[in-house]
Design brief:
36% strand; 5-stranded antiparallel β-sheet; 9-stranded antiparallel β-sheet
Amino acid sequence: MESQAPIFSAVSSSARQLFQLLRCISFASKAQVQITRDGLRFTAEESRVMQGSAFLDKALFTTYSFTPVHIEATNEEEEEEADSPTFQISLSSLLETLQIFGIHDVKDRWSARDSTYGGVSGSLARGGPTAPFENRVLGMTGVCRLSYAGIGEPLCITLEETGVVTTCELVTYEPELQAEIPLQKDALVQKIIMRAGWLYDAVAELSSTSPTRLTIVGSPTPPYFTLSSAGPLGSATVEFSKDPQLLETFQVPRRTVNTYKYSLIKGAARAMALASKVSIRCDEQGVLSLQFMIEVEGGGVSFVDFRFVPYLPEDGEGDEDDDTSADHEEDD
C-alpha cells in the first residue's frame, strides 16, 4: 500500500518553542488540534468550565504547507471541516516527544515567593518572560518536522539533533464536540492589561491559604483591582493600584465581583510565568478571559488564551460560602 502524501507539513528550527507554548495548556492530558492555513490551534478543556487554546502561527515555522482535501460537501459544516481538519491527540505524549532529546526545565517559582506587586521584583526581575526560550535554559536546539496525511492517519513528528533522527507517530482520534466557552465581547464589564509576571506572583501568593476559590473584584474606585482568596489556613488579598505603569489598560465602568475555582486559575500558571503581558477580560455573565502574549524567537509573539466559567455554589453551599460566592451584579 502506497503511503499517502501529507495534506499538512511544517518544519520548525526550534522544538523548544513548540514545547513551551503547548506546555501552557498541559492542564489536560488530551488536546484538540485544528489545522488551518494560518497555523495550528491546540485546545484543551477541563470539565467544560475551563478551556486553554494555544495558536502556533505559521510564522513560527521555517516552512508551512497545508493543502485541504477537496470533497463534495453537503453542508457548510462539512465544508469547514474539509478546510480545517480537526482531530484529538494525547497532549502529554506530544510533549514527551518534543523533549525526547532532553530538557533542563526552568525552576518552578511557585513555591518560592520574594515578590512585590508595584515594583520590578518577581518573575520579571528574575530573568524576564523570554528567558525560558534560551538555549542555555532548555538545551533543545533540534529541528522538528510535523506532518499529517489525513483523517484517521497519525500525526508524524520527526526530531533531528546532531545527526540523530527520531520519528514518532501519535495516534489521532475523532474530535470530541468542544463548544467554545462564549465571551460576550460586546458586553465586557472589565478589561485590564498588565504584566503577566505580576498576575503570576499575586495568584501564587494567594496559594498560602490553600484556597478553593479565587474572587476577582474590579472597581472604578479604590481599590481598583483586587484578587482575594480564603481557605482552611486563612484569607489573603492582593490589591493593585490604577497606576498606568502597573495596569497598562484599565476599563472598568462599574464594580464587578466574580468567583472562580482557584485550581482552575492555577492551571494557567505556566502561561502566566512565560508571558510578557496578559489581557484580563470579563463579560456580564462572569466568563473570564485571560489572553497571554508570549514573546518568541525572532521578535515575534504568540498568544495563549484561557476562558473560565464562574463558580456557582450548589444547593446547600450558600451559607457556607457567602464570602466567596459569585456575584455578577454591581454591589449596592
